[in-house]
Amino acid sequence: MTPTRRLVLAASDPRLAQTVQAHLGRTLALAVPVVRFVDVPHLLAPDTDGDLLLVASDPADAGPIETVVREAKVQQSPAGLGILESEAVAGRRAFDHLAPYLAGRWGWPHHVREVTTWARQAQAPGGVPFADPATETTAEAIRRKLVNHTPSLTALVDQLCIAAEHDVTVLIEGETGTGKTFLARLIHDGSPRRGSRFLVVACGTLSGHLIASEFFGHARGSFTGADGAKVGKFAAAGDGSLLLDEIDTLGLDHQANLLRVIETGEFEPVGSNETQISRARVIAATNWNLSDAVERGSFRRDLYYRLQVLSFHLPPLRHRPEDVGPLVRGMVARYGTKFGKRLFGVCPEAMRALESYPWPGNIRQLENVLQQAVLTSSGNELKLHHLSPLVHTRSDVTTPPPGATANYGGTLKQSRESTERVNILRALEKAGQSRTRAAQLLGVSRVTLYKKMKKYGLFTRPEPVPGFEPFLPRVVG
Questions:
Q1: What angle separates helix 446-455 from helix 435-442, to the nearest 10 degrees?
Q2: Which residues form the Sigma-54 factor interaction domain (predicted)?
Q3: Among 96, 142, 172, 283, which is least packed by CB within 10 angstroms?
Q4: How confident is the model over 24-41, as pLDDT tens digits?
Q5: What pLDDT does residue 54 have?
Q6: What pLDDT is recorded for position 402?
Q7: For 1-5, 36-40, 118-122, 251-255, which range has the lowest pLDDT when averaged over its residues?
Q8: Residue 469: pLDDT above 80?
Q9: Whether the Cβ atoms of residue 161 and residue 168 lie closer than 8 Å to each other
Q10: pLDDT per residue as tens digits for the range 93-150
């Protein structure tokens, strides 16, 4: 028998699953893996067209199986789905409402030949099988998670693999809500430290006198209210990873203590003379450009160099619209399960509205809007009217005329001019509104850039405030 990931059994009853396994092994010489229903979402990917056989051994399996089918359809997974019913389930019509969403439907053990035929068809050559977590490489695991979450970041796979495999400090920059914690977790999960803890310290929420205690812990009686000893995050993380979020909010004295523990691993709990050693790996995140803070003198230059051994910049969501669709489908699936909604899809008009909105709060704002929309939704599809008026009443969200395709974007000239305008705005933002630097980034002369800006009416944008240095995104790689 040869192991296969083209066909996977999902079951809650190991005995029935083993019976199906044995049958397929005996008739087709297949070693088909078995997973739990809760493991199925981790197998689904936009390019996986393997087949899932959901084994219903008891009426109680109806809920988990419906969740699997619904989440697969919301996320537009190309995987084939089938339900294999035991005698205890057959005749209860538990899955009739799922029939439109399934690739097949059988009873067990009365239709063994149909199961055998379907399993044989599932092994047809070609296509992408389900990933095997036991054998996939770090790069494959990272790429799969990015494709499911933020496909625009797949270009960073090689750099993320380097960050995961080497024990160095990492700096992640980006606006609030862009997914910095997700990226840090991805690095941790791909590293040799994946079996240890991943802890987050929200530096911006801590007052000055509590930061040292949160980092390094404290001894009993070290200050008013310290009724007992406390273990800090550097010790609690053990051999794991520690994400220091909003690290730009640390004062210079705390920066000095942090520099010491990064360089030597040594620290003392507050009120204690006992030196301890940290084994945690440090990942830092910031909403601001730390190099600007260094120039202003609010952030230590030596600490900055220690932190950015490897660095990543996450663009805002408005600059990566291709990520909105996967994020929306993943969130609708998750919140549909949480709130017990039977949502099997997102209507095109709602998706267009979500993709066209600029999302100043980035992924965090998108998540809040979708949580509210799913909670108040009814029916099998998330509609435009379920969304917040902030999103669906925008003037640039229109319903295409009958016969128009969803991807229609105007004439070639209009598409070219729209793309040109967006690229100029991005270059100006990156160059801090300096036309000379923006022209250099775009590969055109300053005169050409001036004419283009005049053509597209970009001189109405406000000039930078004197003395204020804007956030300059940094291209990595």
A1: 100
A2: 146-375
A3: 96
A4: 999 999 889 999 999 998
A5: 92
A6: 40
A7: 1-5
A8: no
A9: no
A10: 888 888 888 876 666 555 667 888 888 887 777 778 898 888 889 999 999 999 989 9
Q: What are the φ/ψ torsions at residue 53 (nearest 5 degrees)? A: -105, 110
Phi and psi at residue 312, to the nearest 5° = -135, 145
Is 90 exceeded by the pLDDT of residue 185?
Answer: yes
Tokens 């790689």, residue? 477
| 2-122 and 138-315 in the same fold | yes
> For tokens 């929200």, what's the residue?
202
Q: Which CATH superfamily is domain 412-460 in?
A: Homeodomain-like (1.10.10.60)
Is residue 288's pLDDT more than 60?
A: yes
Q: Domain 2-122 adopts which CATH fold?
A: Rossmann fold (3.40.50)
Tokens of 15: 């005995």
- pLDDT confidence of residue 462: 39
Q: In this structure, what token pair is assigned to residue 404?
A: 């128009």
CA distance linking residue 278 with residue 272, whole number of Å: 16
Pair 382, 332: CB distance under 8 Å: yes
Is CATH 3.40.50.620 what the domain over 319-392 is classified as, yes or no? Answer: no
pLDDT digits (tens, 9 = 90+) for 204-238: 888 877 899 999 998 887 887 778 889 999 999 99
Vertex 343 angle, CA 342 and 345, to 5°: 155
Instruction: Give the confidence band of 3 by pLDDT, cuts at 50, 70, 90.
Output: low
CA distance 327 to 247: 27
Q: If one looks up domain 138-315 in CATH, what number appears?
A: 3.40.50.300
Domain ranges of the chain: 2-122, 138-315, 319-392, 412-460
SS (H, E, C) the chain: CEECCCEEEEECCHHHHHHHHHHHHHHHCEECCEECHHHHHHCCCCCCCCEEEEEECCHHHHHHHHHHHHHHHHCCCCCEEEEEECCCCCCCCCCHHHHHHCCEEEECCCCHHHHHHHHHHHCCCCCCCCCCCCCCCHHHHHHHHHHHHCHHHHHHHHHHHHHHHCCCCEEEEECCCCCHHHHHHHHHHCCCCCCCCEEEEEHHHCCHHHHHHHHHEECCCCCCCCCCCEECHHHHCCCCEEEEECHHHCCHHHHHHHHHHHHHCEECCECCCCCEECCCEEEEEECCCHHHHHHHCCCCHHHHHHHCCEEEEECCHHHCHHHHHHHHHHHHHHHHHHCCCCCCEECHHHHHHHHHCCCCCHHHHHHHHHHHHHHHCCCCEECHHHCCHHHHCCCCCCCCCCCCCCCCCCCHHHHHHHHHHHHHHHHHHHCCCCHHHHHHHHCCCHHHHHHHHHHCCHHHCCCCCCCCCCCCCCCCC
pLDDT at 209: 75
